Amino acid sequence: MGKILVTSFTLLVSLIFTIGESRVNYNGYKVLRINATQNRAFNALKNLFIQDEMDFWSPPSRVAPTDILVSPIRVRPFRTFLDTIGAPYEILIDNVDYEIEYERLNYLASSELRTSEMNWEAYQRLETIHGWMDSLAEKYPSMVSVFHVGNSTEGRPLKVLKISTGEARADKPAVWLDGGIHARVTYIANELITQATRYRNQRLTDAYDWYINPVMNPDGYEYTQVDRLWRKTRSGPRPVLGGFLGWCRGVDPNRNWDFQWAGKGTSRNPCSQIYHGPNAASEPEVQAIQEFVLERKDQIKLFLTFHSYSQILLLPWGYDEVRTDDHDDLMRVGTKAIKTLESVHGTKYTAGNTAEILYAAAGGSHDWAKGAAGIKFAYCYELRDTGNRGFVLPADQIIPSGEETFAAVQSMAEDILEYIKPEEEQTTVPVDGAVTEAGQKLYQKPL
Ligand SMILES: *[C@@H]1O[C@H](CO)[C@@H](O)[C@H](O)[C@H]1NC(C)=O
Ligand SMILES: *[C@@H]1O[C@H](CO)[C@@H](O)[C@H](O)[C@H]1NC(C)=O
Fold first, then answer.
1. Which of the residue ranges 34-43, 112-121, 361-370 would you say has the lowest mean pLDDT?
2. Burial 153-166 (b: 16+ CB within 10 A, else e)
3. Which of 96, 133, 142 is nearest to 392 (CA)?
4. Is the CB of 147 under 6 A from ligand 2?
5. How far is ligand 1, taken at its centre, from the CA of residue 231, in Å?
6. 38 alpha carbon to ligand 1 midpoint, in Å?
7. 7-37 per-position pLDDT tens digit
8. Is any atom of ligand 2 closer than 6 Å to the C-beta of 284?
9. pTM for this prediction
10. Which domains can be identified in the chain, with CATH numbers?
11. Were both Cys, which of 312, 325, 329, 419 would link to 382 (CB 3.0–4.6 Å)?
């Protein structure tokens, strides 16, 4: 009886949801994967990007494929255009709606996975992720705590998980991790806790306070139930040309940070996917994290932000084609991390300065972390996959992707520990690219 009641209630709720806001339809939309290695093709795509003319799933790049979402009416002219500029391409996704529906059916069919229990076999709703964070703090009160750092535009809580073991000190080094719409960041948090509790391996949590913000944009995350490809926040709506050209919601949270704001690779059009917002840090989600990180800027030694997708590890600066003064230090730690990552499942990443290997994009969080908060080691991971799904990454890749990403994060944390040690205690400088034995041993699996 109780079960039937609950079931009908769920049905009713989903019915209301369906009627209230029908899902955005991408029938006939294609994703083209373009090879922009040649200068002519790269420059042409760069101009389209600057003029904010197409929906780029990945910014124009010479080293990674450039993927663009194309509406049905534009497919033919755009293909002709690509032939004209001599850019080879393939059709990566023939019908975006098909992929979305397929993923949704799989999700609905696996109802046993949709309990309020957290797991890494499916993408979870916000409530589940937040519930999971709170339950960790209850279960491991001496190791885990949850900070409520602010509220989103639509009033959802912004939460940061803190994981730490051993001595509590105000000057203990810290690592910051945030993720937008990715289960991988929660996977890393879970792995740290599992290592500490199940395998009694507390090295990394003894050495660092870990601050983890798994859902940086909760409104956008929940709105993907309506528009699977939504990536902005949900503030607004704001008018375009006084409203003559319509009204649009949302700011690109990775163009809104208060450093070199509104520069290259951003848009002032509120309807754009790369809209930088009405002013720097206009979004409460960005503001809250800026404040939280600034309060701990001397403590935080490593700042990592996770996005999809391209399999690239990006170093500052992203706002223009300039390298940081300590580019070589960041590159050394980064190169080793992606080698460690590759050793887990063979996934290949490229590392480099953002604006050199992609086109410039100002207002990103890793630029802000380095430029405004002064955190030396700040990176952005563009995760899996460069395979054939793009944003619609199949849920069965969450765990392998989590495993390899954890290995990379661990490698960085280890290297930086060495770097921040007082000089007299330092052992030899880590060798270029070598995966250390210590790094291998840290990741303990059950026998
Ligand atoms: C892209 O094109 C260049 C030549 O224009 C070629 O050397 C390269 O292999 C191509 N890359 C891919 C991934 O197809
Ligand atoms: C979030 O909003 C609630 C009211 O809905 C308020 O009580 C709380 O103080 C806000 N939290 C923060 C951190 O701003």
1. 112-121
2. beebebbbbbbbbe
3. 96
4. no
5. 29
6. 8
7. 444 444 444 444 445 788 999 999 999 999 9
8. no
9. 0.86
10. 30-99 (3.30.70.340), 121-221+281-442 (3.40.630.10)
11. 312
